[in-house]
Amino acid sequence: MLRAAAALPSIGLLLWLCPGCDQPAPRAAVQGTVLLDGSPLQYGFVEFQPELENEGPAVMAEIHNGRFSLQKEAGPGAGAVRVRLHGRARPPVELDDPRAVAAMDDETAASLDAELLPERYHMRSEIVEHLHEDRLNELSYQLTSD
Predict the structure, then answer these.
(1) What pLDDT, in 10s, does the model give residues 41-54?
(2) What angle do CA 111, 94, 115 make, to 5 degrees?
(3) Which of 87, 92, 75 has its CA nearest to residue 40?
(4) Is residue 75 included in any domain, yes or no?
(5) pLDDT per residue over 90-125, tens digit each?
(6) CA-to-CA distance for 75 and 89, rounded, in angstroms?
(7) How many domains, the chain?
(8) Which candidate, 122, 30, 14, places its Cα nearest to that of 73?
(9) 20-37 exposure pattern, b = at least 16 Cβ within 10 A, e = fewer
(10) In a domain, 7, yes or no
């Protein structure tokens, strides 16, 4: 009990020496396009994962008809982010809709997770973007399936 009481002043000093530590990491607004072999990627999602000193959150945005967008409040952390792109043959199905799930056959269920893009765009992605907090970050990706 005495140890815990003795530690309280140290914790207070640490918080006093760390101004801004309780502030959330800055975020960035993003929008962009994704083309696959010259045509808009119909369905998929893009992941933004913090890199280096970026302490912001990892987030995902859905791709519909080759476009994605995230407002700043829901966007990735400002700074360096690794981008991972995923493509799907079909739009997502709301799995909490019992009628949609019941109507799925095995082929449909399997196609929901079938990845259209080569691993170099997701599992082994080397795409790194530097996002700015103070402006809309416009991104464009021209992908190939080979």
Answers:
(1) 999 999 999 998 89
(2) 25
(3) 87
(4) yes
(5) 766 655 667 766 766 666 666 666 899 999 999 999
(6) 25
(7) 1
(8) 30
(9) eeeeeebbbbbbbbbebe
(10) no
Q: What are the DSSP E strand ranges found in 58-135? A: 59-64, 67-70, 79-88, 127-131
**All residues at 6 or more sequence positions from 17 whose CB lies less than 8 Å from its CB, including other chains:** none
Considering the domain boundaries, does residue 123 fall inside one?
yes
Query: 49: which strand partners?
Result: 82
Phi-psi category of residue 6: left, alpha or beta, with phi > 0 → left and psi -120 to 50 → alpha: alpha
Instruction: Tell me whether residue 15 is in a domain.
Output: no
State yes or no: pLDDT of 5 exceeds 60: no
Structure tokens at 99: 């009628």
CB 28 within 8 A of CB 78: yes
What is the C-alpha separation between 100 and 14, in angstroms, rounded?
A: 53
Q: Is the pTM of this model over 0.85?
A: no
CATH of the domain at 81: 2.60.40.10
What is residue 27's predicted lDDT score, i.e. its pLDDT? 96
Q: Burial level of 67, CB count in 10 A (0-12/13-18/19+)?
A: middle
Give residue 19's pLDDT: 52
Q: Which domain holds residue 50?
A: 25-143
